[in-house]
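Notes from the 1:1 (GR / supervisor)

We went over the backlog. Supervisor wanted to see one worked example end to end before approving the batch request, so GR pasted a single chain during the call. The sequence is below; no edits were made to it. Supervisor asked that the structure be written out right there so they could see what the output format looks like.
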Amino acid sequence: MRTTSNALFEVYIILIFVYILLKPDVLRWGLRLPYARLVGRPAVVSCADVCEPYLKIFRRFIPTIGMFDFSPMIAIIVLYVADRLVVNAISG
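Structure output shown during the call:
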């Protein structure tokens, strides 16, 4: 059964994925978005405004290993667990 809280958690998880893909670090590897001048920068800024406060919590505790940042993966797992807990608490 889908609830509103379930949808909110899923939207936030999708936003984190979009932020990871649109992050300037990924775009420096040579990947170029089509119409990047029109869509790229505002999308990155808006995703950063929404996702960075949550991701910073995990970046304080999880160091980067080489050039890999595992904090988004842990953040998504925590969101998924919180989603399951909230949905189970609501449905009884």
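Supervisor's comment: The radius of gyration is 15 Å.
Batch request approved.
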